[in-house]
Amino acid sequence: MQRKPVVGICADRKVLGKHPFHAIGEKYITAVIEGAHAFAVLLPSLGDAQSIEQTLAMVDGLLFTGSPSNVEPHHYAGEPSAPGTLHDPHRDATTLPLIRAAFEAGVPVLGICRGFQEMNVVFGGSLYQKVHEQPGRMDHRERDEDTLDVQYGPAHPIRIAPGGQLHRWFGQDEAMVNSIHSQGVDRLGEGLTVEATAPDGLVEAFSVTNARSFAFAVQWHPEWKHASNPLSTAIFSAFGEACRQRQQQR
Ligand SMILES: N[C@@H](CCC(=O)NCCCC(=O)O)C(=O)O
């Protein structure tokens, strides 16, 4: 039997009822299985309770997903969050060091939405906490009253940087993407290359310059109905291929 590459997906820690759970949106799991043709394993967000070294030895790639929670601002010297902001410190304590270690070990990393923001922070970047309150920026949030198909449907165009990895995978200069975020890149991290921007100039995708392997992140949600979206297919195919190459090296 041809074993598939193993992709670890870090969970959100959330309290359901009276107990904490570790949860991952099914759309991320199915996109790894179907889009990257990989074997998905769910990783708990318990900080250093589990060894990063052992995690990296078990996987051929890592996916850092979106989440309604925000990265705690102290990780990027930001102002305290507005009262009532949802955070997930257990996830921060797990993903931020894991992203750094994975990059240094040459393990393929794909970041989506919150995962994109986590990667920017790991490389020394900062976040707008409310993009829509920034002069000249669009409102990148979804509308609560809309259906999922509308929320995750096309919301705005992106300009894809000529000569970049995304342009090489996708082959076009523009695409429509969904938009489900209140936070966004303020200062881009060190050693990151912009791969796509929104009409208001907000960074929508970046790669890690000179990375040993796949190290790419997007602000939008390519996992949503990925198979019917050529841009999503291009991203997950490239990620899956990088994970297969890692698997062959193990
Ligand atoms: N909380 C951050 C990131 C937003 C985000 O990841 N949204 C998706 C949530 C649901 C899903 O996983 O699809 C922000 O507000 O910018």
TrEMBL record:
Function statement: Involved in the breakdown of putrescine via hydrolysis of the gamma-glutamyl linkage of gamma-glutamyl-gamma-aminobutyrate.
Superkingdom field: Bacteria
GO biological process: polyamine catabolic process
One GO MF term: gamma-glutamyl-gamma-aminobutyrate hydrolase activity
Gene3D superfamilies assigned: 3.40.50.880
Taxonomic classification: Bacteria, Pseudomonadati, Pseudomonadota, Betaproteobacteria, Neisseriales
Organism whose genome encodes this protein: Leeia aquatica
GO CC annotation: cytosol
Catalytic activity: 4-(gamma-L-glutamylamino)butanoate + H2O = 4-aminobutanoate + L-glutamate
Keyword annotations from UniProtKB, A to Z: Hydrolase
Enzyme Commission number(s) from the entry: 3.5.1.94
Pathway: Amine and polyamine degradation; putrescine degradation; 4-aminobutanoate from putrescine: step 4/4
CDD domains in the cross-refs: GATase1_2
Family as reported in the entry's similarity comment: Belongs to the peptidase C26 family.
Protein name (record): gamma-glutamyl-gamma-aminobutyrate hydrolase
